[in-house]
Amino acid sequence: MDERRLDRVSLLGVLVGIGSLGLGFMQVRMNRIASGVPYPLWRAAPPALFAAFLLLLLIALFLAARVDLRLPERGGLTPEATALLLGFTGDLLLVFPFVAGGLSVARLMPPNAPYARVGLAPGSWLAALSGYILLLASLKALPRRRFARLAVASLALILVAVFASAGLFDRLSILQEWMARKDRFFSQLGYHLVLSLSVTAIAALLGTPLGVWAHRRRTSERSIFGVVGALQTIPSLALFGLLIAPLAFLSRRFPTLGMIGISGVGTAPAFIALTLYALLPIVRNTYIGLKVVDPALVEAGRGMGMARGQLFLSVELPLALPVVMNGIRISLVQAIGNTTVAALIGAGGLGVFIFQGLGQAAPDLILLGTIPIIALAVITDRLMALLIRALTPKGISS
Q1: Considering the domain 182-397 in this protein, what is its CATH number?
Q2: pLDDT at 354
């Protein structure tokens, strides 16, 4: 194996997949809160599935040695085909734990135990992480192949949708938790997403002018960054707690505020705190984006007779926009994660399931909140990346 051609990210994915074999792949609980008994893959799944998992790892290991597109291919698979196959292998590894779990429930379910649950153990999540790493390596190796990237990125979702519609996952413990809370799950998911988007939008409306001000008035730069930086260092629970007392006082002092939903707990303190947390990336990126604009371009605009406002809207802002949007992208992903903690003060969101699961010692209920939050963060990050690419001027992107 030529060391120069070894893709280390792909190799890491293969090693993570191999490591999953040393952990429990499935676990059986006598009820939803009992301690689980772990089963490794070779005991939990049929032999054919275990052989298929090993085969996928061997294929990924072979492809990891040939996925580097920086070197010319002398024969065999083209670099693009190698990267595409690596991505499809990653998709299969990503979906494999759920398929294996669905097919293993009947083998592992104890008799005469109506409340028993069969769920995924740490080895399954490690195997899924292995597939995700291979998927990222493939997408990185296909930067200019949009159709191929779309095929790689969507195959896992298509497979999960097909198997889920066939009912393969219905007997897994996490699906049973979801089915028992389906209506509430969708309402909390929608609330989580709306709160995160609203917080980011308000932070963008406040943070972008602050970044412009810090760039225009150098005397204000230190004060602005000092304040937003200090807000970022306050722990989230502490900031929520600091807001409870003044908001409760205001709602009692002015009953109209309480009538519109402003109180010491609930959405109001969560919204304020999350907005304050979202400011720093937007302010910083706006400042940096304007600062790196070539002064020669600004001087050329002045030479053409542009006023200061015209210069900002026609020259500086378009050139700084990709950096500014990256700040908004960071704030949005951060808000999706921070909104989880807001459930502790009655604001709702997917964090409700996480903290209920912690209180009940129910791991599957914790996962019911955790997995969608991770998925939301990844999906919004990728969508924002596509939006930034579309808004980036062609001269800059090239």
Answers
A1: 1.10.3720.10
A2: 92
